[in-house]
Amino acid sequence: MSKNKKATLVTTTALATAVFLSGCGLFGGEEKKQIDPPQNASYLEESEMEMVEESGGTDAKTEGSEEAVETTVSTELYLIDKNGYVVSQTMDLPKTQSVAKQALEYLVVNGPVTEMLPNDFRAVLPADTQMTVNIKDGVATVDFSNEFATYNEEDEQRILESVTWTLTQFDSVNTVKIQINGKALESMPVNGTPIGEELTRANGINVSTDGVVDITNTKPVTVYYLGGEAESYYYVPVTKRVANDGSNDIEAVVEELAAGPGYGTGLLSQFQTGVKLLDDPKMQDGQVTLDFNESIYGSFEEKMVSEHVLNTLVLSLTEQKGIESVAVTVNGEAGLKKEDGGDLTKPVTRPQNVNTGSF
Predict the structure, then answer these.
(1) Backbone angles phi, psi at 309, to 5 degrees
(2) Confidence grade of residue 76 (pLDDT, cut at 50, 70, 90)
(3) Which of 40, 198, 250, 343 could pair with 281 in a Cys bridge, judged by C-beta atoms 3.0 to 4.6 Å apart?
(4) What is the DSSP letter of 219?
């Protein structure tokens, strides 16, 4: 499963928007995340920061410099929503050389994230939890303080997913190891969930096994559905188990999106009934082309594709290894319309940041 780890440094006055996707404040820009900031980055001294705060801005220029000083870093924090799903929320955090450690610090209950939490979201790690993060050869080893072991039993799997997905957004992190006071954990301290040597995104997120009788004959795919309510939707990743019968993973993703999240999940889909592929997906140079029947339209008269249908397609498919962009045709023809009235003339790439709005 591709992690598609990307990020950017931004000022608090603006958040970069996606090249091809837009709307609802859910998406951000397209540069890669890096643990080590660029060598040519500028930093504010304490006296300069006070001047910036007094002037009411964070993109002030240092004397003699023509480039704006960047004082925040755009970071995905995997928080818990009102339905118990682990969901990324992109926030501008103070610029630091320890962005991985800072990201975890912003997952702590009653920590610095408190005043920034979107409506109906909560932090993940127990209050007062402290940690160190050591990154070497793609492995992030997190050593938590004793407070880490004081979480509620029902949050155990959510904590594993949140820590893993928050850290693996960074290019230098592929896997995660967890310790408490220097002692490696083989299982979680409250409910005993096995950890194994390393955690990766391949373990899934918000894992659903609904309708699965024999899990040994299945494989995981991660798809994105809508959470929240109208005018304040956000995208929720769900790892589902599908039949391991040799079928194409791309087709499996499309089928799960078309089937929807199911009743009682608190999630939504804007796919119309009867959506299906008319031909096998075509892959070339990281681009997958999908040819749908007319049920993919949100509006038959205008031949318009819903923004959320397009976004969930792109987010879900770019979780697959090797897929960087998605092109959509209907009955073999291009020239579709997007919900904002624009033409869908180019393949759509995955945005750097997801769920950037404040709800």
Answers:
(1) -65, -45
(2) very high
(3) 250
(4) E
